Amino acid sequence: MVWNDEPSRMRATLASLWDLLFPPRCASCRERGEWLCAECLALCVPHGPGCCRRCGAWLEDGGCLTCALHIRHLDSLTAAYAYEGPVRHLVHALKYRGLTAAADWMALRMAASELPRAELIVPVPLHPRRQHQRGYNQSELLAAALAREGDIPTAGLLRRIRFEEPQTRLSASSRWENVRGAFEPAGELGDAKSVLVVDDVCTTGATMEECAKVLKHMGAATVHGAVFARTLLA
Ligand SMILES: [Zn+2]
Ligand SMILES: [Zn+2]
Fold first, then answer.
1. By CB count within 10 A, which of 27, 77, 154, 162 is most buried?
2. Which residue, among 90, 60, 51, has the nearest Cα to 230 in the 3D structure?
3. What is the pLDDT of residues 2-28, one digit of tens each?
4. What structural domains does the chain harbor?
């Protein structure tokens, strides 16, 4: 018997038992089978066409206003979907209903949207108090799944030092104010020069830009962002 095989075999057995007891259900319409069924998936809008490659915002005629006003450190943002319809239901289920089992599936959809190459994956951290309330960080789950998928190391190199009210209650301009100085280094980059920052949702780009700022001050040459869903019009 190979001793090292035991934990992974145990995990696989537990995972299939879990699937048997709690088979995936569509987060939007509750149909059994997948985290988003084929019908709901057909309603999801892929992110990308018509959007800024650097910050993911919907492009107006004269270029990207968000980039012109705010983005200095983030090099690109890739999102699998626009944050609307069934996508919103799935993100809420992962975040607020404990549907952590959907994270692997969501990460696969993110990986399918041609993520930029990176030497290290860093999840956007929750404030420790928020993580304690929730019991997990959904961005860490996505980052871990992406790391396994791409065979790239992941490290929690950022710490959130300000406890904030949920950003959904704030206007777009106050979000940029609110997130300033919210993160600090929680480790060393080592030899990694290119970093992929992972989050579940990008609303304005403020969090991604702030994380990119800290990582570049830590020595990163390029910082790309990857999210499951991006709000088009904040
Ligand atoms: Zn459905
Ligand atoms: Zn932009």
1. 77
2. 51
3. 344 555 667 667 766 776 777 889 999
4. 45-230 (3.40.50)
